[in-house]
Amino acid sequence: MTSSLTAPLSTQSLASAGPLRPSTVAETGLDLLYLADLLSKQLYEHGVLDLHRLSRGSALAGPIIEEICHFLRDEGRAEVRGVGEYGALRFGLTDRGRAAALEALSRDGYGGMAPVPLEDYARLTTQQAMSAVGIDRQRVHEAFADTVIPPERLDQLGPALHSGRAMFIYGDAGTGKSFIARRLSRLLPGEVLVPHAILVAGKALRCFDPAVHEPLAASDDSPLARLYLEQGHDPRYVRCRRPCVVTGGELTLDMLEVQYDPATRIHHAPVQLRANNGMLVIDDLGRQRMQPLELFNRWIVPLEERHDYLALSNGQHFQVPFDVALVLSTNLDPLQLADPAFLRRIGYKIHFEPLERVDYLTIWQQECGKQGVAFDEGVVNFLVDEWHARFAVPLLPCHPRDLLGLALDYLRYQGLGHEQLSRQALEWAWQNYFGELGGPEGEAS
């Protein structure tokens, strides 16, 4: 079958101009019988639909919808039920058509936008690879201009994300690893096309996830233009910002495999496939309900070969690209989590350390501004010299936010004005945050 994908383009032009919208069944890369079953499912669910609604519901151009509907009529599976919007014919299923639709639903419950062939998806993912776009130093430092982070650490994070290779971010709890890891999404360049679904061995694998993918504004075409438009990018793909998927202690090995819902008979893409052409952050590594070694063994092949192996519910195996900037964040020692074979595949190991005094005060000032509290450098210096120093508590980025929040809770409870932070409120916050011994048991990561 022919493919609608064009020659490689830049990421920006690819997402805005291609792949071209197919104008014939052959150009979709899908079989006519499959498309007939897809439209039958939609007609079974909604009853009677005109050509416009069938086009919008399947993301297929008008000429393709007409060809499929003619086939369904010739097969005795559908019949004309009058005229609808803009004079378009309305179609409904016959008894034979309803029986065929039920049979199709028993094989595969997906009845949404027409999927794209796996081969087309793999080719497009390669064309949209982050490593083909790159990130320069100026952009990295501009993106973190409002963030207190040492420049030398930015010059570690930037090349890591630029390369698309995996990175290990580690350090003590509270050193800002999770905060910075999530903020790396600011650096994801350009936009990408994400398919609504991918066709694998005759079954649709739902890929687009509104909880993960952020669509960009679509053109405001009229229904008639959408129906007969034969140019522009294929609407089976959604123009999105590069995805950033964040998962933590809830991650299980099952989430890294195709998810099958037996109630709906629909296959859903695993977390790393939804993150393709973007970033996947695994936070609090070592806190999952599985041993880290199990996770690392699962990632060995994708990290080394840049592709992954998955399986459908019927056991059908298939290969997909693995173009994911993998960020592993942990407050545990990487040498205790992973063996040398896995660490070798992690291109970057970036250590987060406690703050210098000047950076600590800067974050305090920022947090005071957010909370509408006057910044008193003397009070904060007292905190550093009398409490941090006495109990040997390192200066961590999480402390200003957490301690200030507790101090404001105290002031509001006492019915006192919170525009000015008092030393008494700050001492109360310290005792409740760390405990009476002043130990850092309450640190946040």
UniProtKB/TrEMBL annotation:
Organism of derivation: Litchfieldella rifensis
SUPFAM superfamilies given in the database record: P-loop containing nucleoside triphosphate hydrolases (SSF52540)
Name of the protein in question: AAA family ATPase
Top-level taxon in the UniProt lineage: Bacteria
SMART domains for the chain: AAA
InterPro entries given in the database record: AAA+_ATPase (IPR003593), P-loop_NTPase (IPR027417)
Start and end residues of each AAA+ ATPase domain: 163-356
